[in-house]
Design brief:
mainly alpha; single chain
Length: 437
């Protein structure tokens, strides 16, 4: 691992993050196209949610295989392959006239998207010293989320102006550009650093088992599962129709509010990154804090009588903006408890968590909405009832987090580490020491 940071490190990282931002743009490109898609393909909410669900199924299912591949073949090759696959998927979407073809297009987009984030994560420890990795990981997640801005404003304008086919052909062209930039600028490691010896498939599968059975990896998995899905579900598909059809906001206002959610992430991310680096033994408390804040603000929104006030909705979006930074802490658990030779596989296990929760929730909300209003005329009550499904996954995630944290701390003690005081006792000790100064 490098001991210092160079300009080349930031340049390589910058292009890799640009490729990730393009992947986010491709991933969320259906979020503002819900109404045009239902009209173009003649479908309802549950079928529309299937588009995104199958995309996320492919993404989640490929995380572990991609993790093994990036450990064997490096980030550069997978970033290029992923960008070209997403370009192919968006070209197919541009020309699609039937639901089946559109589903195929989203599946291909999901396959390309699956290769991107883990590949970028693999670049970071190769080019940055260990003390900077948590912060750079957070910056990666937040810089990448800027791709969502492109999918909420320019893409929405393209759909409303030139139309469906030009908009998605433009998205495909952006994917090809990303592939070219990665080929020109990204390298897997600095010059002079020897490439790791590729391991055989048997060893790779053994490393995968070792990663998954380690409670620290599972702590990362459940951290990602618990904190990511609510914000992703809102940004990826159901937030825009909730604000337009449910709350009666104009498309322009709804798009601007989603942009506020995206822009809040870069403010939250560095703060969580610094806290993660400064207090590595307290990282799980950050996860619990974000999870409980998300449940609390959603509860207030869902029980509010009638239309939700705009300031309250803005507060919800600001809390949901923490989904990316908080879920990124899960990758820091993977890095801490796994050697570099299996970091890709461990990151794939973690990344599978949030996307699995997201696809379950997206599909369930679509089914509930169709059950409530088979004609597609959803009102605010329909959306509120559908969003209540999230409580099932929040409860499951909380229990899993608590259990995996207990096992992780027990394993650290067994390896000779010092016991970790409960947070309340640590805070009391901190203030006692301040009082003695």
């Amino acid at each position: 691992m490098p001991t210092s940071t160079s300009r080349r490190s930031w340049a390589v990282w910058g292009v890799a993050v640009a490729a990730y931002a393009v992947a986010i743009f491709q991933r969320t490109s259906l979020g503002v196209a819900a109404a045009p898609a239902t009209e173009r393909f003649g479908i309802g909410a549950s079928v529309l949610s299937t588009f995104v669900v199958l995309q996320l199924v492919v993404y989640a299912a490929m995380q572990i295989p991609v993790g093994i591949l990036v450990d064997r073949f490096g980030s550069r090759l997978l970033l290029v392959t992923g960008a070209l696959l997403m370009a192919l998927g968006q070209t197919t979407m541009a020309l699609a006239t039937t639901p089946g073809t559109a589903v195929l297009a989203r599946v291909v987009v999901g396959a390309g998207d699956a290769m991107t984030f883990i590949s970028v994560l693999r670049v970071i420890p190769a080019w940055f010293p260990a003390r900077r990795v948590p912060l750079v990981t957070q910056l990666t997640g937040q810089a990448g989320q800027l791709g969502q801005v492109a999918s909420t404003i320019p893409l929405a304008a393209a759909l409303a102006g030139p139309g469906w086919t030009p908009a998605y052909l433009g998205a495909a062209a952006v994917g090809v550009l990303a592939a070219v930039l990665v080929l020109l600028a990204v390298r897997d490691r600095p010059v002079g650093v020897a490439a790791p010896v590729p391991v055989g498939w048997g060893r790779a599968l053994a490393d995968l088992r070792s990663s998954f059975t380690h409670p620290g990896t599972r702590l990362g998995l459940w951290s990602h599962f618990s904190t990511q899905f609510s914000g992703m579900v809102f940004a990826l598909l159901w937030g825009y129709p909730f604000m337009t059809a449910g709350l009666g906001y104009s498309p322009g206002l709804a798009g601007a509010l989603l942009t506020v959610m995206v822009l809040a992430g870069p403010v939250i991310g560095p703060v969580l990154g610094q806290l993660t680096a400064a207090y590595p033994l307290r990282r799980s408390n950050l996860i619990f804090g974000v999870l409980l804040a998300t449940v609390a603000i959603w509860t207030l929104v869902l029980v509010w009588p009638g239309t939700v006030p705009l300031p309250l909705l803005v507060l919800l979006l600001l809390v949901l903006a923490a989904y990316g930074p908080a879920s990124a802490v899960g990758f820091d658990f993977a890095r801490s408890f796994n050697p570099s030779t299996r970091l890709g596989a461990a990151s794939g296990i973690v990344n599978m968590g949030g996307f699995t929760a997201s696809l379950i929730t997206i599909f369930a909300i679509g089914v509930i909405l169709d059950w409530r209003a088979p004609t597609g005329a959803f009102d605010l009550v329909d959306f509120k009832i559908a969003f209540c499904f999230q409580y099932l996954l929040w409860a499951f995630g909380f229990v899993s987090l608590w259990s995996s944290r207990r096992l992780t701390r027990a394993g650290m003690r067994a390896d000779g580490g010092a016991p970790i005081d409960p947070l309340t006792r640590a805070i009391a000790r901190h203030w006692r020491h301040r009082g003695r100064r």
